[in-house]
Amino acid sequence: MSESVEITMADKIDTALSEMAANNEKINVSQVAKRLGISNSAIYKFNPEKIPDIQTAQKRQKHKAESIAVGTENEQLKKEVESLKKLNLDYKALADDLRKQNESLWEHIQQVYNMYDEVLAERNGFAERLKHGL
C-alpha cells in the first residue's frame, strides 16, 4: 500500500516563492501566479493566507536589492576616499615643493636687494666725490 502525498496549492506557492527568491526573479502575486500557471484571482480567492507570504518575500527581495546597492555605493565611496587621500598627499608634497621654491626665491630676492643697496651706496659715493670735485 503506497501513501500518496498531496501537494496543496499553498505548498506550490511556497515552493515557487523559494525558487523565485533563489533565482532572483521578480516576486509579486502576478509573477507567482504566472509561474504556477494560474490566475492572480485564484491566489486571492483560494489562498488568501499566502498573500502576506508573497508580500513578505517581495519586501525581502527589495531589501536585499537595496542592501546590495548600498554596499556597492559604500565600496565606490571607499575607493573615492582612498583616491582623495592619495591626491591630498600629492598636493601636500607639491605644496612643500612650492614652499621650498618660494624660500629659495626669497633668498635670491634678498641677495638682489643687497646688491642693489651696494650699487646704490657706490653710486651715492661717486655722486658725492663728483660734487666735491674729488
Topology readout:
Elements: H1 9-22, H2 29-36, H3 40-46, H4 51-131
Helix pairs in contact: 1-2, 1-4
Write up this protein.
InterPro entries: TnpC-like. There is one protein chain. This protein has one domain. The termini are far apart. The longest helix has 81 residues, at 51-131. The protein is an all-alpha fold and 134 residues long. It has helices at 9-22, 29-36, 40-46, 51-131. The model has no long low-confidence stretch (mean pLDDT 91).
Provide tags for this entry.
mainly alpha
Number of alpha- plus pi-helical segments: 4
For the sheet with most strands, the description reads:
none
Helix content: over 70%
Number of domains: 1
H and E string: HHHH
Q: Report the count of strand segments.
A: 0
Q: Detail the poorly predicted runs.
A: none
Protein name: Putative transcriptional regulator
Coiled coil: 74-104
Organism: Thalassotalea piscium
Keywords: Coiled coil
Condensed summary:
This is Putative transcriptional regulator. By secondary structure, this protein is mainly alpha-helical.
